[in-house]
């Protein structure tokens, strides 16, 4: 438990530093939020001053920084410059689509990643290994906007099997594949190399000589030991997805945190960017904790080491 | 391994069984923009023509206007203007109710206009359109008198603008300014139902609607039961969704696709020339090579705007020549006689100004190159086309694609030779904003006279035109203003802004709102 307490204590300074960095950066980069908010539209001085006052931008920077920190600790991350809505509400609205897409991508990625990884890793340097790894490399290197557009063209426009921008579960299929392919590629390569390592270990040879079936060796004896590197990767990539897959969101016209962050940055919507960074740091810290915890489940030796 | 293969096929089968495209009978309309971040649907606050796409279908104005800008009775049955031009008395319809059941009357008009000028509201567009507003007097339940501080020549057009839509005073007081923008209540043919952030906005037909302006084909409630605006930022996805039949109408369709639909006949198309400022470049008269009027004129002459526009827009947009687009009231035909494509003339003007051709194809004078710094915020392909043409007569145009924040910085620092702009506006009165000398930007003060041109004569003309008494004087003054701007070669119009729409050919009645940007969906029906 000591281990987790320590981890939790790091959260507070991490968040504080992240918030301060964001506040300072957003205040020194050029561009007046009032102009950005008004777009290219003609507006009188009167309008500009109204907007400035409305946003609280007429107050000095230090005062704004102070009140931001105080309010943030109270859980009040302020109102968006753009919409005048509480930023927590905006994040909540965009969180569900992001979680859906992340889980969809995760399921697709883990399933096909592990599948191809086993397929390749159980017979290294064979033709099936080479082909699987070429496919995995494609998954990693093809840009997701291209994959998205191809999926739309093939399955949406030409074949008409799935809706492109529809609602509900079916509309999740293409975007999940689009983000999942990248995921699957990385998983497949890591599962393969890790599995090749494990399969060369002595205890596997022992298991084989004992006459245990090939599938049992792979699924029960090898895979579990081979999963530590892929799980680490899983944590990092899931973290990337859950903080928003901006390109996939754009191609499939999905709402999500990626789009929200992009809009917020371009419009210099300081409260919204701050809140999103707070959310993203929290997610990363949380996912790291989960990954650490999972190590213990996969490999009981890690639990023992921690206790000592 | 067999098990895994089985699972794989199982999942594939599941996907296939789910692979149907559900298409509701209700009309779906895509709100398809380069800026999908809707912020408010409050007409009093908005400054976005994209938000107005929705607002225009939920609200009515005192005076209705068709796409050509002709005026018709709207929420007001009739109106008259006092002889001093300060008082506009509206006789209002007595059979109109807001979506929330509130009765529309003179008090609602007063509440709307008074709240627009209240700084608390934070109006970004309406407050400027309302001009020198003084007050609204409730004469009786169905007579409202709007009083201005001084004569306001653009007032009648202003009352047709979407920004001056009449809002429900009951909803305003119960929802507050921020809440109203998220759940607006008007008197229009469609009612707000639901807004899914960054995804879609759903409207439903107003069953009580019985006050459509006379220029509309229909009467009574619209035939469209549900109107869904789906936000699809990515152009190719938008077009793909339209072709797959998932959406019925798409806006901002690329000219290349418009061309394809027109030749194949698979989809119907309509394009509208947007009124206001065309896509145009200000030439900075205070720094760099454009301080010399001959160099400015030479730059104008170097461009084949007709060919450039047809190359870029496949005939869906026309080249523009004047400070306002040809669809804007008081447009002056004489603009088109200025600065035709004439590279030889351009070269002669540059020679006369002392710029001699250098060995590298760039002109020089006293060891200085004929260099133009061109930060480009809008339409990079057009900026590059301009660069190509100007290069042929010896200009070295340095195009930098910029974001809004960088452009603002350059405007404050007076650090550019030319900048592009485009605006939607219903009235030539908009010209005072980019051409009056009081609107020259200063450090920290964002304004729109980016040519930084100061001339007391032009200032006077702009002020006089704003308070012109008759249409004839107004037209004459705006003719003089346009001539002045053209003579000085400070504003280089390139092409008219165009709104390109493609839609399901089974539909009819798709029509533009005044200004030719937004669509009024009221009349849309199956053929």
Number of strands of chain A: 0
CATH architecture of chain A: Orthogonal Bundle
- Average pLDDT, all residues of chain B: 89
Reported by name, the CATH topology of chain A is MetI-like fold
Instruction: Tell me the β content of chain A.
Output: under 5%
| Alpha carbon gap, first and last residue of chain B | 57 Å
**Helix/strand/pairing class of chain A, anyone?**
mainly alpha
What is the percent of helical residues of chain B? 25-40%
Characterize the biggest β-sheet of chain A.
none
Q: Which secondary structure elements does this structure contain, and how are they paired or packed?
A:
The complex is a heterodimer of chains A (308) and B (527).
Chain A lengths: L1 H27 L4 H6 L6 H11 L5 H13 L13 H35 L5 H15 L2 H15 L14 H27 L2 H8 L4 H13 L1 H15 L3 H6 L5 H10 L3 H29 L1 H8 L1
Helix pairs in contact in A: 1-14, 5-6, 5-8, 5-11, 5-14, 6-8, 7-8, 8-10, 8-11, 11-14, 13-14, 14-15
Chain B lengths: L1 H17 L9 E4 L19 H8 L4 E3 L5 E3 L2 E6 L5 E6 L13 H12 L8 H4 L3 E8 L2 E6 L6 H4 L10 H14 L7 E7 L3 E6 L20 E6 L3 H9 L5 E3 L3 H10 L3 E6 L2 E8 L9 H9 L3 H9 L29 H10 L3 E2 L5 E3 L2 E2 L1 E6 L3 H13 L3 E6 L2 H9 L5 E7 L7 H4 L20 H11 L4 H18 L2 E5 L2 E6 L3 E2 L2 E2 L6 E2 L4 E2 L1
Parallel strand pairs in B: 1-10, 17-18
Antiparallel strand pairs in B: 2-3, 4-5, 5-7, 6-7, 8-9, 9-10, 11-21, 12-21, 13-19, 13-20, 14-15, 15-16, 22-25, 23-24
Structure description:
- The complex is a heterodimer of chains A (308) and B (527).
- Chain A has 308 residues and is mainly alpha-helical.
- Helices cover 77% and strands 0% of the residues of chain A.
- Chain A has 15 helices and no strands.
- With 527 residues, chain B is of the alpha+beta class.
- Helix content of chain B is 31%, strand content 22%.
- The N and C termini of chain B lie far apart (57 Å).
- Chains A and B meet through helix 2, helix 3, helix 5, helix 7 and helix 13 of A and helix 1, helix 6, helix 7, helix 13 and strand 19 of B.
């Amino acid at each position: 438990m000591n281990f987790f307490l320590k981890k939790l204590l790091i959260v507070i300074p991490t968040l504080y530093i992240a918030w301060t960095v964001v506040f300072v950066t957003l205040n020194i980069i050029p561009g007046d939020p009032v102009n950005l908010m008004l777009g290219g539209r003609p507006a009188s001085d009167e309008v500009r001053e109204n907007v400035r006052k409305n946003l609280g931008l007429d107050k000095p920077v230090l005062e704004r920084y102070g009140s931001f920190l105080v309010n943030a600790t109270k859980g009040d991350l302020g109102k968006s410059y753009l919409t005048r809505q509480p930023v927590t509400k905006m994040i909540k609205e965009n969180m569900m689509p992001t979680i859906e897409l992340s889980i969809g991508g995760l399921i697709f990625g883990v399933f096909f990643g592990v599948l191809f990884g086993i397929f390749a890793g159980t017979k290294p340097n064979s033709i099936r290994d080479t082909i699987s790894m070429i496919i995995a490399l494609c998954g990693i290197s093809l840009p997701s906007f291209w994959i998205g557009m191809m999926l739309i063209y093939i399955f949406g426009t030409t074949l008409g099997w799935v809706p492109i921008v529809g609602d509900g579960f079916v509309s999740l299929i293409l975007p999940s594949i689009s983000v999942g392919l990248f995921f699957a590629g990385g998983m497949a390569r890591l599962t393969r190399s890790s599995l090749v390592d494990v399969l060369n270990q002595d205890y596997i040879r022992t298991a084989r000589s004992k006459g245990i079936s090939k599938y049992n060796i792979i699924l029960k004896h090898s895979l579990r030991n081979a999963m530590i590197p892929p799980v680490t990767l899983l944590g990092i990539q899931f973290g990337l997805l859950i903080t928003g897959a901006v390109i996939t969101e754009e191609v499939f016209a999905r709402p999500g945190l990626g789009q929200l962050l992009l809009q917020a940055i371009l419009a210099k919507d300081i409260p919204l960017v701050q809140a999103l960074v707070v959310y993203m740091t929290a997610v990363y810290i949380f996912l790291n904790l989960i990954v650490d915890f999972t190590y213990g489940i996969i490999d009981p030796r890690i639990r023992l080491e921690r206790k000592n | 391994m067999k098990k895994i293969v089985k699972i794989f096929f199982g999942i594939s089968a599941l996907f296939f069984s789910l692979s149907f495209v559900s298409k509701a009978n209700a009309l779906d309309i895509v709100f398809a923009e380069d800026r999908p971040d809707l912020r408010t649907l409050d007409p009093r606050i908005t400054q976005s023509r994209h938000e107005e796409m929705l607002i225009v279908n939920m609200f009515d104005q005192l005076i209705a206007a068709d796409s050509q800008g002709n005026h018709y009775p709207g929420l007001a049955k009739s109106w008259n203007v006092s002889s001093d031009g300060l008082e506009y008395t509206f006789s209002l319809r007595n059979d109109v109710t807001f979506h929330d059941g509130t009765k529309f009357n003179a008090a609602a008009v007063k509440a709307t206009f008074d709240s627009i000028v209240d700084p608390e509201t934070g109006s970004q567009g309406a407050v400027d359109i309302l001009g020198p507003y003084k007050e609204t007097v409730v004469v009786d339940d169905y007579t409202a008198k709007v009083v201005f501080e001084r004569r306001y020549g653009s007032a009648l057009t202003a009352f047709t603008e979407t920004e001056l839509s009449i809002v429900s005073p009951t909803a305003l007081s119960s929802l507050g300014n921020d809440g109203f923008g998220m759940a607006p209540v008007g008197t229009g043919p469609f009612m707000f139902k639901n807004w899914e952030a960054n995804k879609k906005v759903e409207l439903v037909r107003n069953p009580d609607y019985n006050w459509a302006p006379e220029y509309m084909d229909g009467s009574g409630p619209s035939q469209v039961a549900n109107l869904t605006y789906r936000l699809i930022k990515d152009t190719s996805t938008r077009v793909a969704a339209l072709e797959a039949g998932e959406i019925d109408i798409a806006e901002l369709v690329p000219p290349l696709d418009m061309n394809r639909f027109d030749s194949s006949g698979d989809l119907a198309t309509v394009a509208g020339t947007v009124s206001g400022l065309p896509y145009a470049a200000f030439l900075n008269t205070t720094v760099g090579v454009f301080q010399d009027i001959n160099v400015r004129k030479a730059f104008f002459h170097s461009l084949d705007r007709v060919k450039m526009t047809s190359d870029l827009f496949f005939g869906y947009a026309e080249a523009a020549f004047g400070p306002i687009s040809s669809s804007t009231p008081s447009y002056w035909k004489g603009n088109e006689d200025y600065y035709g494509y004439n590279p030889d003339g351009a070269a002669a003007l540059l020679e006369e100004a002392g710029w001699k051709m250098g060995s590298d194809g760039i002109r020089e004078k006293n060891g200085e190159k004929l260099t133009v710094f061109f930060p480009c915020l809008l339409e990079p392909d057009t900026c590059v086309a301009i660069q190509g043409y100007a290069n042929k007569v010896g200009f070295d145009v340095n195009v930098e694609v910029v974001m809004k924040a960088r452009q603002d910085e350059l405007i404050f620092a007076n650090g550019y030779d030319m900048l592009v702009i485009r605006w939607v506006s219903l009235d030539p009165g908009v010209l005072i904003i980019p051409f009056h000398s009081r609107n020259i930007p200063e450090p920290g003060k964002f304004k729109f006279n980016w040519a930084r041109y100061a001339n007391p004569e032009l200032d006077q003309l702009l002020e006089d035109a704003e308070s012109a008494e008759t249409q004839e004087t107004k037209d004459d003054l705006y003719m003089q203003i346009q001539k002045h701007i053209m003579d000085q070669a400070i504003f280089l119009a390139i092409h008219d802004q165009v709104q390109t729409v493609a839609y399901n050919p089974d539909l009819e009645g798709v029509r533009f709102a005044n200004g030719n940007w937004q669509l009024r969906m009221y009349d849309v029906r199956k053929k």
